[in-house]
Prior knowledge:
The structure holds two protein chains of two kinds. By secondary structure, chain A is an all-alpha fold. Helix content of chain A is about 75%, strand content about 5%.
Amino acid sequence: MLQRLRENKSAQGTLLALPTTLWLFVLLIIPLILTLVVSFGKRSPDGDVIYTFTFDNYVRLVGYSTDCPDGQTSCFDPLYVNILRRSLSLAFNTTVIVILLAYPLAYFIARAHPKRRNLFLFLVLIPLWTNFVIRVYAWMMLLRKEGAINIVIGWLANLLNIPFTPLEMLYTPGAVLVGMVYEFLPFMILPIFTSLEKIDNSLYEAAADLGANAFRTFLRVTLPLSMPGVVAGTILVFIPVMGTFVVSDILGGRQVILVGNLIQRQFLDARDPTFGSAAALILMVMTLIVTYFYTRKFGFGEEIVPA
Amino acid sequence: MNPHRRSPLILAATTLVYFFLYAPIVILVLYSFNASRANIKFEGFIPSFSERVVMDGSTVKSSPCGPFHWFCELSKNDDVIEAAGNTLTIAFTATIIATIIGTMAAIAMQRYDFKLKPFSQISLYIPIVIPEIVMGIGILTLFSQFFGWVNATFGLTGDARLSLGIATVTVSHIAFMVPFVTLVVQARLQGFDKSFEEAAMDLGANEWTTFRRVTFPMILPGVLSGALLAFTLSLDDFVITFFTNGPGSTTLPIYVYGLLRRIITPQVNALSTVWILIVFMAVLLLQWLQSREEKPVRAK
């Protein structure tokens, strides 16, 4: 038996991969299947799941209803569709801003002297590993009416003799956007840096020898070669922004509701796991579609692993 | 063309982004020394030491710990101590298991061909491409349905009932940590020359000896940085823990989140400051490991 195992490379490989594969099967694949099954179920009065096969939850998400106020036979309530659209556009805006902020920094680090490069990277890793919830809390302190931002603006206004009333910045969509950008910025810097670092110096020299100016070199050499990093970063930013509920919960108050908040409330406050599961599946399908088309166009490499 | 040449535009953008990254952290740390208990405005440092805490309204005038008053309060807060204990227990247990099975999987994926391989590969990418909340609610549904069934079938009551707790959090953490360990170790395996192993085999070592004496020492830095990455992921996790924890298994992020929705005293800032300090040291360690990793293997 042992002798045979020693010779059978395929069995060895299976054995080595088995614990991980089983673990992921039980805790990822089965839960996903279960979520799919539950999303077709019905909620019992005490918040349990009744297993049936109905599209009710999806119909409710789309907003189609036959129970209409003004005597019509069918009507359309865009409540949940709007939540989905809001989440998509927030994820899109966050990703674009994060790319614009991360790129110059990653470029700077990649082109820095090798001796100092580690220090600059280190400075990116500290905020990255400082807890997610703590980072949102920091923005709560900054954005409050009595917070640091208002103090600084007030002080400047005072200096210039301009009347100033503290701005209400917390619990607005803007606060959520800033919080998201802050939370996910390091996840864009690192992959872009990784792909920029790989670019051989001789390519820049060749571009210069062939008469390209700095801008043209950037456009024709640097940018295309750093695309795998941008793609990996986009995946690391876009997907979590789509699903996060902490940022909108704390910085948006009850004003900004995203898909993440919707799902969380179905599982905890409203106690309707079937509707929550349907919303989660729609969220998953949306992110998978975006990821699929995006990576098929550009492809991503090993840059996906942070740190 | 000087490769380290800097355009002033990039320098300005870099400074701005670093400022954006650090300004919130600086404010957070500063407020952990706030004399004001209400913690809305910064009312200066606590000026003096005294045997007992002296308050004037909501302002601390003096304390046995002086300016470090909130750190002392933190160390006396039983909820924080319990949450910290839970966080570390979960992170350590999950890291050990994830590192062992993740490394095994990395070796399998890199060095072997087997029928299950495409399936394993897909499962390893799932946690990366799926929003954490979807994983979280899926695992919650699995546990609640399974536990409900077990409790009903075996008639478990009271303390014997299966419920969410440290075990469910740990098991779930391992699920999202393993792929990262595997990816890091796999990258390491890709980077080194197979001829070292072949040489060992030629010299008569069997597979186990080859692994123990050649392969493992060479991938060890990769395994360690994978483990450290997994550990930090576990410490940092909020979403999965949020859905899988139960009474008595609150972790620090969950505890802080709970506080943010109620009253916030500078204690939360003190906790954040301690956290940032720990992260600082962990990242230093990681960097040191990675710098060591670069030297020994690339023999020419």
